[in-house]
Amino acid sequence: MTKVLYAEFTARPDTVDRVDELIRGLAEDVRREPGNEVFSVYREEADPLRFFVFEVYRDEQAFQDHITAAYGAVFNAELVTLIEEDASRLTWLTPVGDARLSQG
């Protein structure tokens, strides 16, 4: 079954450029994972310190491969020192009907 995850966190004002750099690098790595289907990063328009990540993995094994990747541990270890929260807030999502994005 597909694993869908939404993560969010808030950079401290003095660290936002570093957070942006880190998440861009992570996105490049994750998108190369064979089981990753989507890794989209956004910043809130009204509050650019807030980051949002939408992630889709082919199945549980693909997600397990993702969370055990060495570069993810390095990213998370540094990120926790740069954000307002103790860690990223994670929300697991379940598709409703045909949840695929339209191509039109």
TrEMBL record:
This is Antibiotic biosynthesis monooxygenase. Residues 3-91 form the ABM domain. GO terms for molecular function: monooxygenase activity. It comes from Labedella endophytica. Pfam families: ABM. Keywords: Monooxygenase, Oxidoreductase. It comes from the Bacteria. The keyword Lipid biosynthesis does not apply. PANTHER family: ABM DOMAIN-CONTAINING PROTEIN (PTHR33336:SF15), QUINOL MONOOXYGENASE YGIN-RELATED (PTHR33336).
